[in-house]
Amino acid sequence: MDYVEITGGITAPKGFKASGIAAGLKPSGKPDLALIVSEVEAIAAGVFTTSQVRAACVDYCRQKLQQKAIAKAILCNAGQANAGTGKQGWQDAVESADLVAESLNISPEAVLLASTGVIGQRIKMEPLRAGIPQLVENLGENGNEAAANAIITTDLVTKEIALETMIDNRPVRVGGIAKGSGMIHPDMATMLAFVTCDAAVSTGLWQEMLTQAANESFNQITVDGDTSTNDSLIALANGQSRTPAITDLNSKNAQTLQQMLTAVCQHLAKAIARDGEGATCLVEVQVSGAPDDPSARRIAKTIVGSSLVKSAIFGRDPNWGRIAGAAGRAGVKFRQEELRITLGEYVMMENGQPLEYDRNAASNYMKQAAQGAYLEEDTVLITVCVGNGSGNGIAWGCDLSYDYVKINAEYTT
Questions:
Q1: Which one, out of 255, 283, 363, 393, has a CA that is 20 to 30 A from the CA of 15?
Q2: Which numeric CATH code is attached to 282-409?
Q3: Percent of the chain, pLDDT > 70?
Q4: What does the pLDDT read at residue 228?
Q5: What residues pair up with 162 in beta bridges, in sequence order?
Q6: pLDDT confidence of residue 374
Q7: pLDDT of residue 1
Q8: Is 158 a catalytic residue?
């Protein structure tokens, strides 16, 4: 590991400012409008929901990034998803970008958008219009916390991280914030994540690096199996570290930056899974012995997304049969005679044969994880080996509690 964790989140990289305010978009009166700004034009990349029903901000960003992968600002509103809102929702998105551009004195083409909240509800434009000037006025190099607070909805905690490494004897930083608690099942999820970086990276390469990082992080988490209309991962790299431009993915500098970018995304992804609606613990599934890495990741995500596995973990029931069943239906061929399943330190199956183990101790292992919630000691670890292939994969999720149903049964009421 060639990097260290630092403070500052999205404003840790050089040349970035952020802000967050309560503009009146949420009925609760809590912060609901965030802005991230690069002092100079930045190379922009994005990964978005695969849903056929998409928010206006998703289509807007895709269009802008296809035209020109450069941006200076990201505006995010919380409270209304602006998804399923038709032509007027699109006009609201365009106006939002225009308002930010006017206040920052930049081109609207340099503004990207994100929204989160209730599907089918337009952005409350009157408070947004009034809030933009204040949002711009509050921009600062210490604005990370305010922005992180302004993008959340049902989240119980904010999610942020910043890492630093040295490239050619100069510090290079990657920072990020994210939101997400429910409707999480990426091919992207209601998850939003914003990443900033002060390295200089070529346009196509930055997109390639972000896609790879997403595949090993956000696309490997699940809370409830529901992919959102608004999932967005947007990353800006502004080159203000003054390091040489990274143009070759196989170069040492590119590999160092890729490692750090992936680590930031994985930290945020696990924070989202850890904060799943009603969750009491994080669940990590590690799969080995698959034919290749994508196959291993598919098995891992199927297991961690199984409602039966998630329910058993909430009940502290070491029911390994549910794990085996989920692995078997993942769509990846393997010989059950080679299956090995471990819960924490407890080996439950070896070479396809069930083993005797201490059920009470295994149950207590899961209870202890629940007691460590939000202290990064809350992880229930499941390891599965399906053969002797070279494929390895990890996925993250959470248990399924009574509170998940309560939260979502009352979401719009």
A1: 255
A2: 3.10.20.340
A3: 93
A4: 61
A5: 6, 175
A6: 45
A7: 65
A8: no
Tokens matching residue 58? 């998703």
Q: What are phi and psi of 213, to 5 degrees?
A: -65, -40
Mean pLDDT of 395-406: 82
- Tokens 């204040």 map to which residue? 134
The two structure tokens encoding residue 142: 């210490």
Structure tokens at 84: 């399923």
Order of strands, sheet of 389-398, starting from the edge strand that comes earlier in the sequence: 353-354, 346-350, 340-343, 379-385, 282-289, 389-398
Q: How do the domains of the chain map onto residue ranges?
A: 3-274, 282-409
Q: Quick one: fold of 3-274?
A: L-amino peptidase D-ALA esterase/amidase (3.60.70)
pTM: 0.89
Distance CA 60, CA 114 (A): 9
Q: What is the DSSP string of 309-378?
A: HHHHHHTT---HHHHHHHHHTSS----GGG-EEEETTEEEEETTEE----HHHHHHHHHHHHHTTTTT--
What is the longest distance spanned by two Cα atoms in the chain?
A: 69
Report the SS3 class of residue 399.
Answer: coil
Which residues are within 8 A (CB) of 363 and not within 5 positions of it... i.e. 6 or more apart? 316, 317, 318
Model confidence pLDDT, tens digit, residues 82-116: 999 999 999 999 999 999 999 999 999 999 999 99
Catalytic residue among 11, 153, 165, 190: 190
Q: What is the DSSP string of 249-265?
A: TTSHHHHHHHHHHHHHH
Give 112's strand partners. 74
Cβ burial 276-292 (10 Å sphere, 16+ → b, else e): bbbbbbbbbbbbbbbee
143-156 pLDDT, tens per residue? 999 999 999 987 88
Shortest CA distance to 161 belongs to which of 258, 260, 259, 241?
A: 260
Query: Which has the closest alpha carbon to 324: 345, 307, 299?
Result: 299
